[in-house]
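hey can u check if this looks right to u? its 251 residues, i copy pasted from the old doc so theres a chance i mangled smth
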Amino acid sequence: MTDENEGSRIVPMRLQKFLARAGVASRRGSENLMTAGRVCVNGTVVTELGSKVDPRVDVVTVDGMQVHLADGSVTLMLYKPAGVITTMSDPHGRPTVADLVPYDRYPGLFPIGRLDFDTTGLLLFSTDGELGNGLLHPRRHVDKTYEAILDGVMSEDDAARLREGVLLDDGMTLPAKVELIDVSRGRSRVAITIHEGRKRQVRRMCSFVGHPVIELHRKSFGPLELRGLEVGAWRMLDAEEVAALRRAAGL
């Protein structure tokens, strides 16, 4: 077992998440199996719900029977609406993306990255941890393109600063692609492509150059664009789209 930070990678993962993704039971049902002492990792009974496993090396059994992750994986695209948080559960009862995707049918689904509460657009989900890790790995520099409505009129100098990279509180950003689409009523509409996945990165970058974000929408992730979906709807990716994502992730 390992206690590596779960937020930094898709694997290692929490044991109850592993059990759910393997189809043993729902997340809650998997927790009940653990607290009942029916789950072992590498021969040791594990009842602590915060425990993590690495599916590549750890041997997990339930009632003495070894459990494996399912060989088949699914990957889908969601048109995330505003007012929904990117998490699969929320202790405060707020709307989550889990309410919008077929999590009951594919209990191992997880979002690949995050979109802020008020941000709309393309959000990918998968049961393939390797794919998720690859797409989010900072060395891959997978493009993510957003369309933003900004307060104020963005000048070419402002855009040039974003293109060169700006110094945020967590370090210098990589150069971004910035295209000014139009200006109307004291607001600017821009397309911004970044290659990182820092928290609220586009919002912080735009605020840094004096143009707070009013609306933010993700148009594309890597080779895929958001097309043919209504707000709040999802669709499965086909084999060609998944293959394109795997290439972008270096897999």
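Residues 1-10 have pLDDT under 50 and may be disordered.
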